[in-house]
């Protein structure tokens, strides 16, 4: 099974017995630990950028734990700090949380698991913050063109092509499924071109009847048809000097195709009902979700217009073919809709992100955007989890391995294998716990794995929080009774 990076923990306590005990507890869980018995030295050690979590005592000479907490959070606000106190009060807890503490522990520890689990939760929160920051940095890099976002090899190829064609005046045909961001590509080309200060005009050719489409594109004169009560400029004239984006060009009727061909060949438009043409200087970018080559062969699209449009072709890949872009896009939409809703939703849990990445996204980026907007509105937490996603994302994986493999068939082999293994391991651990009545020690023995390593796997695959039942500190099969470490603490 996969190994995960363990959080590096700084423990600061002037009591050597407690310091040694906490260090042993955390090292047994696989955490690298820096143990220091002086608060001033602890402050210097906390500046180490590799420190993820700090565990410190409140009562210490020279520098109190509360002062040390404030100093650490002022210097490194991303570090999670856990306070330890033998004199826990509501006032102390409130003061610590206000100063930035993640949690606090009361000494002597009733259960050593309380120490390791609290640190594990703090480490998970720190890791989530780190992932969020990395995504934010990626969003500010060259992965974003206007709102066109991606870091996959397919999207990097699109970005390169956009940069290249932006400096020409050639007609561009953008092909891709609905929801892949064809208009965003068109806007990126326009705003990187010499025409950036001129109009960008977009029209959906499939949303209008033939008469209205021609009127919108080319304009009309008074009395040219019923309802034409005055002269009107068309969108080609409105876009003069700039760019016109003809979305769903494959749905344009044959008669309108003829008029479009004239614009491309002659650089002029004739308003509906007019006799004299009007010269226009417009760059045409067209887009379609249909295969224009096939439509041409079937006689549904004019061959001469096809070749006029198809000077430069940009093919946008569907989202299912670039799953590595899902986290970046999801985080982008999270920021957008959290800001709109004025909610402090700052991240997406690993389980939720895994569910998002595995989805086939038949609606592409538009569907992902809708899912994230819904989750932001519905969640009551600061992190989106699987429960905040639509019902289809919450369904348990199918027991039939053939069905599961089919659901991953759209992913690259390496990623599909990793996700399939993770799903198997999570189901295996859940089933093992269920079989052993949620007794961790019994399940670990059945798996042939050391108990501490088994508990680490439960946390890694997020099974423990959903499947483990509270265990009594006493009993023949309990591992939470006082051992040498706990006795030293108390």
TrEMBL record:
Single annotated GO MF: sequence-specific DNA binding
SMART domains: AAA, REC
Sites bearing 4-aspartylphosphate, chain numbering: 57
Main location: cytoplasm
Response regulatory domain residues: 8-122
Domain Sigma-54 factor interaction: start-end pairs: 148-377
A cellular-component GO term for this protein: cytoplasm
InterPro entries, per the entry: AAA+_ATPase (IPR003593), AAA_lid_NorR (IPR058031), CheY-like_superfamily (IPR011006), Homeodomain-like_sf (IPR009057), HTH_Fis (IPR002197), P-loop_NTPase (IPR027417), Sig_transdc_resp-reg_receiver (IPR001789), Sigma_54_int (IPR002078)
Stored PROSITE patterns: RESPONSE_REGULATORY (PS50110), SIGMA54_INTERACT_1 (PS00675), SIGMA54_INTERACT_2 (PS00676), SIGMA54_INTERACT_4 (PS50045)
GO biological process per UniProt: phosphorelay signal transduction system; regulation of DNA-templated transcription
Region (Disordered), start-end ranges: 463-490
Key words of the record: Activator, ATP-binding, Cytoplasm, DNA-binding, Nucleotide-binding, Phosphoprotein, Transcription, Transcription regulation, Two-component regulatory system
Highest taxon, organism lineage: Bacteria
Subcellular localization, as worded in the UniProt entry: Cytoplasm
Record-linked Gene3D superfamilies: 1.10.8.60, 3.40.50.2300, Homeodomain-like, P-loop containing nucleotide triphosphate hydrolases
Name the record gives this protein: Response regulator
Organism of provenance: Corallococcus exiguus
